[in-house]
Amino acid sequence: PRSTQGVSSAASDVYRDRFTFTLANVHILFGSGKSGYLRRIAEVYNLARWAHKRVTTRAEKNFDHDIILIGDFNIPKANTADRVGRQLLSYGMHLTEYGSQTGSNLAGSDHYDQIAFHPDHTGSKFTGKSGVFDFDKAVFKTIWRNHNEHFGLFTKCHLSDHRLIWSEWRNTVP
Predict the structure, then answer these.
(1) Which pLDDT tens digit goes with each residue over 12-22?
(2) Are 37 and 29 in contact (CB under 8 A)?
(3) For residues 42 and 50, what is the distance between their CA atoms, to the nearest angstrom?
(4) Strand 22-27 with 67-72, pairing
(5) Parts of the chain with a pLDDT under 70
(6) Contacts of residue 13, Cβ cutoff 8 Å, sequence gap at least 6
(7) How many CB atoms lie within 10 A of CB 121?
(8) pLDDT in tens, 56-94
């Protein structure tokens, strides 16, 4: 938690009871071939190591000990069977489970996008609710219905080739 020095006691009490966190947006390079895959492993490993160190080191210089990683990890299925996923999980990070079976890529087949946090520190604030927002068929229903064969290209050029992911967190410390 941040220092409340110089803050009135009323404001300090409100601030103390709030959940504050550091949100890190992630976009891991996919790369190609073996060298691309090894680079992805190294990137995810270093990111997980950084988050773990920030969470477990009780140093005054750490702004926050609640770290949430969110974004495109380029891991089709984050689990211990995948070397990239194993790097993320090896430092104790927990991945939210989507409330839907819809994949985060436009094809809906894979979960490249993840929300990761350290359960010992941030887990008590997570409500357990998370998912993928299938915006393509909801927001662009007419385009989806009338131009399905070009929809992926349209969406990728004008918005994203990934669907939005979300999670719900408690605003106050339990």
Answers:
(1) 444 556 777 88
(2) no
(3) 12
(4) parallel
(5) 1-17, 58-63, 77-80, 99-100, 144-145, 147-148, 173-174
(6) none
(7) 17
(8) 876 666 667 788 999 998 887 666 677 877 888 888 888
